[in-house]
Fold this sequence. Notes:
Oligomer: homotetramer
Distance between the termini of chain A: 57 Å
Helix content of chain A: 55-70%
Structural class of chain A: alpha+beta
Number of domains of chain A: 3
Amino acid sequence: MPSNGLATIGLLAMILNTAPAATTAQRLLLSSTVIAVSAAMIAMLAFHLWTVPGWRKRARYVASAEGMIDLASACALPFGWLIVPDPQDAQLFALVWALRYIRHASGLALFWRVMHRSRTALLSILSLFIAIFFVASSLAYIFERHAQPDAFGSIPRAMWWAIVTMTTTGYGDMLPVTIWGRLLAGWVMVGGVVMFALQAGIIATAFAAELQRRHFLHIWDLVTRVPLFQKLGAATIADIVRRLEMRDVGKGAIIVRKGEPGDTMYFVVSGEAAVQLDPAPIVLNPGSFFGEMALLFGAPRSATVVATKPSVLLVLDVADLRELAARRPELVDLIEAEARRRRDANAASQPPSTPSERTLRALAAAQVPD
Amino acid sequence: MPSNGLATIGLLAMILNTAPAATTAQRLLLSSTVIAVSAAMIAMLAFHLWTVPGWRKRARYVASAEGMIDLASACALPFGWLIVPDPQDAQLFALVWALRYIRHASGLALFWRVMHRSRTALLSILSLFIAIFFVASSLAYIFERHAQPDAFGSIPRAMWWAIVTMTTTGYGDMLPVTIWGRLLAGWVMVGGVVMFALQAGIIATAFAAELQRRHFLHIWDLVTRVPLFQKLGAATIADIVRRLEMRDVGKGAIIVRKGEPGDTMYFVVSGEAAVQLDPAPIVLNPGSFFGEMALLFGAPRSATVVATKPSVLLVLDVADLRELAARRPELVDLIEAEARRRRDANAASQPPSTPSERTLRALAAAQVPD
Amino acid sequence: MPSNGLATIGLLAMILNTAPAATTAQRLLLSSTVIAVSAAMIAMLAFHLWTVPGWRKRARYVASAEGMIDLASACALPFGWLIVPDPQDAQLFALVWALRYIRHASGLALFWRVMHRSRTALLSILSLFIAIFFVASSLAYIFERHAQPDAFGSIPRAMWWAIVTMTTTGYGDMLPVTIWGRLLAGWVMVGGVVMFALQAGIIATAFAAELQRRHFLHIWDLVTRVPLFQKLGAATIADIVRRLEMRDVGKGAIIVRKGEPGDTMYFVVSGEAAVQLDPAPIVLNPGSFFGEMALLFGAPRSATVVATKPSVLLVLDVADLRELAARRPELVDLIEAEARRRRDANAASQPPSTPSERTLRALAAAQVPD
Amino acid sequence: MPSNGLATIGLLAMILNTAPAATTAQRLLLSSTVIAVSAAMIAMLAFHLWTVPGWRKRARYVASAEGMIDLASACALPFGWLIVPDPQDAQLFALVWALRYIRHASGLALFWRVMHRSRTALLSILSLFIAIFFVASSLAYIFERHAQPDAFGSIPRAMWWAIVTMTTTGYGDMLPVTIWGRLLAGWVMVGGVVMFALQAGIIATAFAAELQRRHFLHIWDLVTRVPLFQKLGAATIADIVRRLEMRDVGKGAIIVRKGEPGDTMYFVVSGEAAVQLDPAPIVLNPGSFFGEMALLFGAPRSATVVATKPSVLLVLDVADLRELAARRPELVDLIEAEARRRRDANAASQPPSTPSERTLRALAAAQVPD
């Protein structure tokens, strides 16, 4: 996200530029940075509008949320200079650039969706929170106004104390001193801390559910591209999907290193990997899998596997494989058949002493081979 | 909730009226608002009592929780004027109106139910909390009373420090200064923060369970009104219910927009929707569904769907449809049969190239059509 | 828990007695209360030892955790008077009575069991916490000692700042003022708040699991006493047990009130209840159930049910009944057969228009009766 | 973890040594301790390098994370003395020893793995957090700079206020005083507390999942060593594994005490235990189980069981046994067959009145024996 980094640089320069201790040279540098970033944003907007064909599409882009953020970012500083006489203060308009974080944070859309899903619970707690907030402020005013006419002289002032106390921030600038005020404060603190944690607990639960849903969709798309899995029934696939993780590897990355302990197996979704065996490496095309031997016998990895092209892999943990093998024996059959097929094809390059027949099934049956 | 908004306006006017900086004109306006709200509440109560037939029903209403809150709201200000000489202070009785939040917050009933369900856990933590509170206050008094006779001169004073510290509010008005006092304070902070978060964690878990239960009941009622689902077995329905969301749409609302990416399908529970196709729109009556094509092929929506009456829809997510299709193949059969029936009926208005036979089943079987 | 209440009274009197504002008369009353509670504890211990037969059993009681707390409670004040010259200070030994909370809190045993179960996770976070605590204190000392030689003059002093900051208590008595100190403080706050919430999250999860386990055992014992359920298979019972709640009612308590909306059904475990119908009430013995009609048709309760003896009931929610009915059709058969049997037996007292054949099964099948 | 304890001693001595109140004698003792610990670390490194055979292996060890921490620990103090003239200050380099906590905390690897797994969610919340942090600081500067030019005179200064407020630490050294500043502060507190709790909630959920995965693997390894379980199918084993807990007992430890209430049964994985019956104790070899009688009849333990060798046991809770028995009847068959076999073998030493035929199955069927 280049424009995100640009916004960060611009914002930091603007922020540091407000420091009174800065020297003239530093100020010059920082101001130039802010102006340069602003110029870059104007250029980016202009370039984007220029490349978009037709006026109708341009208008639609400007009317979209993304376009409006781009437009606001580009206009922020020029607009500031127009209406604010002090150029130093005009730079504060660069704060609009913080909107770009929202534009690019895909997680933010997720966040709002979660808020929307759990709105019933959140609203009912919010309503309780507001009721407590009103009552606590008013009672604090009633209890404390004679003892501290300055601090608690009106309910709006007491509201400042109430919010500082309910969130357990506790600045200490306003304090109840009467018995009743302190008893009230005790309840407000306890109530506030429970209510906020409750709110957060509800959001966190909903967040976890939404993330799991997204992960399911993402992995499902990858799994359907592996021919091996296409032979399985839908229920088995849904079960596998919930247990796989994705891993992106660059060209030349070492996926598995000979001699290391292994607790994961890999399926190649796209790209290509090579098992570095001695006469000649075995090439693993999309649909192949590897690393199942270390899982099976608890032995260290017998060979190094390197990605020969940028690849997408699916990773299966040993704990998950065991649970899967127990619940879905057809998966084991499939992997074993495939392993046998592959071994026959590469018979020469395979180490001869592999105990081939008692593989994953033995693992699934949880019997110590004797 | 009109009376809820009324209470908020009245409360805000009362709160602002305590601000010493208010001018005479502002005060007059605020006081009038408070009095007007009070008058409105008296009128509402009188109207309600007048419309209820018979003295027995009136008495029962006044004796109910709702009636008592209405009565208290109506009497608050007149009662205040009677017993408090200062009219400014008498307005503080308007605080009673905050009870109306409780009256209308359906979530509050939920909240108390949750508290009741997890009372065993909450009480045992509360008892531990009180024991720590007593011991911490007493020890703080013992450790600090000689060093700070003013601040920690008695255990009740030390209790103020203890509650401020256990809730991590930390006003800073009272501080241990001895070694032992500070060691104690460290433990009190850690213990307090863990205990409160634990309390909140328990409530949040119970809250989530209760919300899920309510959602199940609500959706179940809607599902049983869709004829399509009535052909399914009970176990399948229970499974579907857990995955559906409800959506209310007003007349004329665009539910699905042509060309947008789609990841949800819709079932019409009540009302009416229209698929805007070219010769004539297809009318979707209660029991119909739409949007399944975009789910199936990942293609954008092929037509816009508009609600022609205020409608209630059930929404199914693509992730949930896939899991359901895997576990409940009969649902897929049903949807496909219905889709075929609908297509035959509207054959003329249907785009001819629809790949009709490999629909949801292909999706469920997770095979790439070849 | 009488001795728990006694301890609370004694502790409160001791606490209030330290208030310097107390008059002589108040002091006399409070001191007498403390002494009386102490005398009562000595008497209780003596009585207990006197009623236990044989010296061996007495010795074993004194050696048990419970006996030691009783002994310590009884000896606290006399021991205090012996070794502390000031009688006012001697009363502080009454703090030992707070141990009685631990003795009676059954939830505390649960709490420790939970801590023990999740000790691996808790210890690893604790070790991380200690490492951060040491490093933060030392770095704060290094960064701040020249700027604030008084406040941050040694690492032990900086440790006080670190714990106050990590728990987000923030008294404000010690503050970093240098750039590096403030950057450090920012990280310490964020790290502290995440680590504590994490700790609490782990405990809360384990707590919820342990509570569910206890609930399962408790309800299982009740369910096996209901003959109706004994005809069901073990898997069905395990499923039911997870969904039932217990309710204790006293003699004469109204369990279900005619005309109220109903969303629960009840099974009588022990005691007796009566359905108040007009010619003669129907007596419900242990093993009977009631309230299923309101669940079925969403109609209000058709009759009032009163407990005629102190009774234990099992409560089943409508949401849970629906899920159970979907997964365990044999339960529905059983309830329907029983309902039919009961209706035949009480044919005279039954309202004639009950739609008897489409009962729970219709509900389970989710079909709108037509 | 001896080197972990050594690091703690060294760190504590270094920390206390910075206290200005220390006497010369104390300082000498503390300095000597620090030097001794440093010497021990050098010796340990030297010994380790000496025992490792070959220069290549030595180089690899020094290049590993573990070796680098060892090297840094050993060199910390000598390096400090070299570059810092004040020997007191040079001791601060001992802070490097805190790295040893990371080296030994196996939980830390777990922690990072959890962070990695939930990175998508954490990063999106972090990005939101940074956006709010920037905006809150800038707005606070804009609102407060005229009212408090010293405190809020630049945005970097306002950032200190923002982080102190968002974490709800609330030192109270900087406070908004304007209306707009206080409204902003209220939102910042609420937003901060929700965001941190959300972050923590996500980590806690992921942590719990990862711990469960580890527990599954660990218990699986133990279960496969018990011959009894090897006769079961893989699905049953996976189900059992999720419910067992491990317990290590030393030689001579009393596992079960006669007359105590019992709610767990035990399986011997390795080692040996003895049931202390009267003519001669029954020896329990690996693969045996005991304690099932107390579970079955709710009676107290009928005999004491002592570990005669250091043993590893698997513990099954009564609640878990009941759920297992309901779902996996083959487990009950197996345990009963084994119990019968064992009873026949030890017929002489068995109490004659054991109601042998209605054992676990009766429990599983939840019928009260009549």
